[in-house]
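User: I'm new to structure prediction. If I give you an amino acid sequence, what do you actually give back? Let's try with this one:
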Amino acid sequence: MHQSFNQRVHFYYCILIALKIHGKSKKAGGIRGKNNFLLKWLRKAQDNNIFHPDITSEIEWLRGENNPGRIRYRS
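Assistant: Good question. You get back a string of structure tokens that encode the predicted 3D arrangement of the chain. For your 75 residues, that looks like this:
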């Protein structure tokens, strides 16, 4: 259980870093741009098996939740 928690923490840390780097780019595109970036990032992470298999359900859940109006970002 402890290892699974650490894997999730690492996964979400990677998301935050990726979003921060994306936000610094000229093509960030506001909320819609962040949503599109996150969906692509999650799809690539899942397709390339970047994270431990235990994280797959988390990726699928986030991809399902990431539609307009469901996930809110702070600047």
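You can read the tokens as a compact description of the fold. Here is one thing that stands out. The two ends are 33 Å apart (CA to CA).
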